[in-house]
Amino acid sequence: MSALAPERPATGPVRPRPRRPAGIGDRLTLRRAAPMIPAAVLLVLFMAGPIIYSLYLAFTDKAIRGDGASKTSFVGVSNFTDALTDGDFWNSVVLTILFTLISAVIGQNLLGLLLAVLMERANRVISFAITSIVIAAWILPEVVAGYLLYTFFAEGGSLDGILGLVGIPPQTLLFSAPIVAVSFANVWRGTAFSMLVYSAALGAIPGDVQESAAMDGAGPMRRFTSITLPLLRPALATNLMLITLQTLSVFGLIFIMTGGGPDRKSQTLPLYMYEQAFSYGQLGYGTAVALLLLLIGAAASLVYLRLLPEEEKR
Fold it and tell me: What is the pLDDT of residue 276?
């Protein structure tokens, strides 16, 4: 009688071992990366190249004419120290900050929010009309917008005609307060962007939140300050950062309307940089001013990033 073989324990189906998720480096081969080489070359040539060359110029006495044109020398931080000790540079810094505060932080931001709120409550026809008018000013080329606003503020222009109808004497804002005139022009041209940003953000707010607050007795102003504004905080910070960076670099509008004058009363940093680099031919010094303007924009961006909720920063 043969011995009985021991029974094998019952086992379930064999499960395959989980595979480690493949990363980009596991699959990126030279053959697969070859189509990206032209794009990488273009990025290096047209982005990294100019950035590196600008950093180089800022530390040299490179010029369009004179000794700096024939022989470029390394001057260290002399361009930056010259700028920081130049009264015209600080005049341009103050005017740039003033221009940005008036036209972007206050003008475009608040007017864009107001238009977005009004359009949310208006009927479709009025909303379409307002959107068309505001966006029409935005899509105009900067040169065209500059000449339109110049004729509006010029002596004997449209503004003087309107003021004459109500008995107010003509106002020569292009000469008496040019920074106010160019700030108004930038508000007129750029408000559409803020309006579209806030319109999209308002459309994303759940309607039941507003309805619940209204049922609890909250009025329109209370709902706006306690519900709408807190929910608009990410859009507010993003819009402020974008319009501030755009306004810091405005050149054509001011150049066409005032040329930075009279007597440098509207010469913001972009116009000061242009004057030094191309009118006076000091490319190295002008590039250093451009880098200082870049630092101002970076500092403003850091301030606005502080306004973002913590979950939006991740």
Answer: 93
CA quadruple 183, 189, 192, 193: dihedral sign: negative
Kindly report whether the global pTM for this prediction surpasses the value 0.85. Answer: no
CA distance 168 to 165: 8
Domains of the chain: 86-313 (1.10.3720.10)
Q: What per-residue confidence (pLDDT) applies to 208?
A: 76
| CA neighbours closer than 13 Å in the CB half-sphere of residue 313 | 10
Return the SS3 of 74.
Answer: strand
Chain centroid to CA 161: 34
Lowest pLDDT segment from 16-20, 89-93, 159-163, 283-287: 16-20
Give the Cβ contact number of residue 114 at 10 Å.
Answer: 14
Question: How many residues are there in the chain?
Answer: 314
- The answer to whether residues 185 and 253 touch, using CB atoms and an 8 Å cutoff, is yes
Cα within 13 Å of Cα(209), Cβ side: 14
Peptide bond into 262 cis (omega under 30): yes
CB 268 within 8 A of CB 254: yes
Measure the CA–CA gap between 64 and 117, rounded to whole angstroms.
Answer: 51
Q: Which residue has the higher pLDDT, 18 or 130?
A: 130
Diameter of the chain by CA atoms?
A: 129
Q: From CA 304, how far away is CA 306, in angstroms rounded? A: 5
β-sheet bridge partners, residue 60: 74
CA distance 7 to 45: 73
Residues in CB range of 236: below 8 A, 6 or more apart: 109, 229, 307
Q: How far apart are CA 255 and CA 270, in angstroms?
A: 10
Calpha distance 179→201 (Å, rounded):
31
Distinct helix (H) and strand (E) counts, the chain: 21, 0
